[in-house]
Amino acid sequence: MIEFIRGYIDYVNPEYIVVENNGIGYLIYTPNPFVFSKNDKDIITIYTYQHVREDVLALYGFKTREERALFMKLLNVSGIGPKGGLAILASGQPQQVVAAIENEDETFLVKFPGVGKKTARQIILDLKGKLTDLLSYTDIDLFSDDYEVETKTPASSTALEEAVEALKVLGFAERELNKVVPKLIGEVMTTDQYIKKALQMLLK
């Protein structure tokens, strides 16, 4: 398994990023690609998980080993695939996800795209009491400004369009997005900030 890839961000789209390392571009699926900026010329480290099936060979990337560990634990739950795991990591603050599992809060878990009551119950059954090694990580807030990487604010209309596309990739339905997007029009934010703001409203 590839532990991590260190390189430059070459491309960012709503579903994945491309990291260049020694002339090779690695396509890596991430929870929220727009936390990375193509304009950032610093070398970054992406901790990876290699997903292999008969017809699939894909890389999933995360900012920390702990974030990756939570993703891998979610994959062990029946009914949660890589796309579902990414959606939970992108749209939920990790400390709330862990707390919801430990407190058996199905109401919170079913807010995530693709998670119904049956899957929420399965997440709790499979993971309750098994996330203690991630408790230090749960102090990290994916919605906080400390998690920002982008340094430039793109045109707000383009950034909002990119954010909407990213939310669709995560699994949010058009009808759900139609409730929150009008509230974001007129705001001047980066794509990542739009995504975080929309997610906060969607998960209330």
Automatic annotation (TrEMBL):
The keyword Disulfide bond does not apply. GO terms for molecular function: ATP binding; four-way junction DNA binding; four-way junction helicase activity. Keywords: ATP-binding, Cytoplasm, DNA damage, DNA recombination, DNA repair, DNA-binding, Helicase, Hydrolase, Nucleotide-binding. It is found in: Cytoplasm. Residues 156-204 are annotated as: Domain III. Residues 72-91, 107-126 form the Helix-hairpin-helix DNA-binding motif class domain. The RuvA-RuvB-RuvC complex processes Holliday junction (HJ) DNA during genetic recombination and DNA repair, while the RuvA-RuvB complex plays an important role in the rescue of blocked DNA replication forks via replication fork reversal (RFR). RuvA specifically binds to HJ cruciform DNA, conferring on it an open structure. The RuvB hexamer acts as an ATP-dependent pump, pulling dsDNA into and through the RuvAB complex. HJ branch migration allows RuvC to scan DNA until it finds its consensus sequence, where it cleaves and resolves the cruciform DNA. SMART domains: HhH1 (SM00278). Its main location: cytoplasm. It comes from Litchfieldia salsa. GO terms for cellular component: cytoplasm; Holliday junction helicase complex; Holliday junction resolvase complex. This is Holliday junction branch migration complex subunit RuvA. Pfam families: HHH_5, RuvA_C, RuvA_N. Belongs to the RuvA family. The keyword Glycoprotein does not apply. Has three domains with a flexible linker between the domains II and III and assumes an 'L' shape. Domain III is highly mobile and contacts RuvB. One of its GO terms (biological process) is DNA repair.
